[in-house]
């Protein structure tokens, strides 16, 4: 409990304004002052303040600044008018409370003076009291929403608010990919049946080559079947393969692998199941590798670690963004999206936030990231394990790449070259832009050379169905443009990959896509056309994905004919059974295990 220093009324703990006279109970701190320009950052204060409430101790010590606002016209903002009215109101309350003389008035005098002021019928004083009441109600609403302590301490720094809106927009777009990511999350089992229907021209061509006869004809005519089971976290896998389905298939093979063994059976050749202790065989051949299906689980980036990593390094980037290097202006914005891959125009009056750090600020940022990387044991453990697995796979395949880069190496490299990297980015005029319309994110851009070179772009028109985004690294570009019609989404994903003197490109056009309708393999149902070479005017390879009852159908059609892959939502794959025979000795005669297995199967 306390007392209002203006009217002497008792106040409750944590209250910001006096319930009697409406005056502020404590001095405003710089970090509690947020201008209209900062408040317009997308996402609002609620989410950021909620996060700050969970980190109260840190929020209390964090310096909260605001971006510099530049506008073609500078009308008085509502927030500024309210702040001025509040300041004037508080000053007039002080004058009213002390009107009896120069001596310090008593609490009773203050109370009676405030009551007298409140009872006056003048329009001006009624307006003053009304303004204070409105401000008190607004703050009370915020306090109810996400805690008075958070409101009084921190409404979110410009850096946090700048990043939060972008993170929400990009996370929402990435959600459509979750279906593909979740296919193998809890184990996966399905039966796949591939059938073909060749065109007359293709049958004639294959017949002339001598391929459309005998076993090849059986495989093309009767199709193939593969029954697959992959356990949760890839602890084991089973494949039952049949080429040329029917009573007398051309080839039957059953395979299985777990963390310790690899086995197979060829039913038409033998009833035995041939087994090898594959990891131990590699070691006995002098390799330091130990391969197992469980390694694939280690390659996955866990969701918990992903969220922690974004939060951890997001804080560092947010701290580097302040009122000195984050500029805000309201003006028309003209899109320059990754041309010529994306042709798009976005012209309107928007609020544009531009982060333009200088070399000193960038160098400090890089060094702070490097310091955090040294302490980040969780990310380092996952990254180094991923590198080790890559080394083991390379050695098992007969390659000797040497020691791969470790996480600490990346941190050292970033620290040692922080000044060089920072100077290069400043010379190239690195800029990070956020374009908003109200609370909606319209564009996110990472640019060099004054906007002439785009590194990353994300743009969404006023029509929420239209989306443009892309990434450019050196001469390699990946872009997507999307629109929405009544029949579903349609758009194009294009890629141009360049490496030295080699360039490869392709485009994938889609239409009638419903992102809510997932197929067995996670690809959304719809129509697709793959265009090798990126020629959007070509016929390409057309295929359609659709669900029929408990099955998903992938139908591909071109001038060769049609190919249909049916995938079931539940599978029937089974481990091969029979008398087991160990073939480790056959693999330990100087050959690689892969060569030994191929030779053994060939002998069968």
From TrEMBL:
Residues 40-53, 66-77 have a biased composition (Low complexity). The keyword RNA-binding does not apply. Residues 54-64, 84-112 have a biased composition (Basic and acidic residues). Residues 25-123 are annotated as: Disordered. This is Zinc-ribbon domain-containing protein. The chain crosses the membrane at residues 129-148. Keywords: Membrane, Transmembrane, Transmembrane helix.
């Amino acid at each position: 409990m306390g007392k209002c220093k203006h009217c002497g009324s008792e106040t409750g703990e944590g209250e910001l304004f006096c319930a009697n006279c409406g005056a502020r109970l404590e001095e405003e701190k710089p970090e509690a002052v947020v201008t209209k320009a900062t408040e317009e950052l997308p996402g609002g204060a609620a989410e950021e303040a909620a996060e700050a409430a969970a980190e109260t101790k840190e929020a209390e010590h964090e310096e909260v600044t605001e971006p510099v606002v530049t506008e073609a016209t500078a009308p008085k903002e509502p927030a500024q008018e309210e702040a001025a009215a509040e300041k004037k109101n508080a000053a007039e309350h002080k004058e009213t409370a002390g009107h009896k003389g120069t001596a310090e008035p008593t609490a009773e005098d203050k109370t009676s003076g405030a009551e007298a002021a409140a009872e006056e019928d003048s329009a001006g004083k009624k307006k003053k009291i009304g303004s204070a009441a409105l401000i008190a109600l607004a703050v009370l609403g915020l306090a109810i929403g996400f805690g008075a302590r958070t409101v009084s301490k921190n409404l979110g720094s410009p850096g946090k608010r700048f990043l939060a809106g972008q993170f929400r927009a990009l996370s929402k777009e990435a959600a459509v990919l979750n279906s593909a990511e979740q296919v193998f999350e809890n184990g996966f089992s399905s039966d796949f049946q591939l059938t073909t229907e060749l065109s007359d021209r293709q049958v004639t061509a294959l017949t002339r080559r001598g391929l459309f006869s005998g076993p090849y004809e059986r495989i093309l005519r009767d199709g193939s079947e593969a029954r697959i089971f992959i356990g949760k976290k890839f602890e084991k896998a089973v494949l039952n393969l049949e080429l040329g389905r029917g009573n007398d298939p051309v080839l039957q093979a059953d395979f299985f692998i777990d963390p310790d063994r690899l086995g197979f059976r060829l039913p038409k050749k033998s009833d035995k199941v041939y087994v090898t202790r594959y990891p131990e065989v590699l070691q006995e051949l002098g390799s330091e590798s130990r391969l197992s299906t469980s390694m694939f689980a280690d390659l996955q980036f866990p969701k918990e670690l992903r969220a922690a990593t974004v939060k951890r390094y997001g804080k560092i980037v947010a701290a580097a963004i302040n009122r000195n290097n984050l500029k805000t202006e309201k003006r028309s914005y003209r899109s320059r999206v990754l041309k010529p891959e994306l042709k798009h125009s976005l012209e309107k009056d928007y609020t544009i936030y531009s982060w333009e750090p200088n070399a000193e600020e960038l160098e400090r940022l890089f060094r702070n990231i490097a310091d955090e990387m040294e302490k980040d044991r969780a990310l380092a453990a996952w990254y180094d394990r991923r590198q080790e697995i890559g080394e083991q796979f390379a050695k098992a395949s007969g390659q000797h790449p040497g020691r791969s880069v470790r996480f600490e190496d990346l941190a050292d490299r970033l620290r040692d070259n922080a000044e060089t990297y920072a100077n290069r980015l400043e010379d190239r005029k690195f800029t990070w832009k956020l374009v908003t319309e109200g609370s909606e994110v319209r564009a996110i851009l990472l640019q060099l050379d004054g906007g002439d070179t785009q590194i990353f772009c994300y743009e969404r028109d006023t029509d929420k169905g239209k989306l443009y985004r892309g990434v450019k690294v050196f001469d390699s570009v990946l872009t997507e443009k999307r629109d929405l019609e009544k029949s579903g989404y349609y758009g194009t994903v294009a890629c141009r990959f360049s490496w030295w003197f080699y360039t490869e490109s392709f485009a994938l056009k889609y239409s009638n896509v419903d992102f809510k309708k997932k197929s067995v393999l996670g690809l959304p149902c719809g129509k697709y056309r793959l265009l090798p070479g990126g020629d959007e005017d070509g016929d390409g390879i057309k295929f359609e994905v659709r669900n029929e009852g408990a099955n998903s159908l992938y139908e591909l059609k071109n001038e060769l004919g049609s190919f249909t892959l049916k995938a079931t939502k539940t599978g029937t794959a089974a481990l091969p059974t029979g008398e087991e025979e160990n073939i480790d000795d056959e693999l330990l005669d100087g050959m690689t295990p892969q060569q030994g297995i191929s030779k053994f199967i060939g002998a069968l």
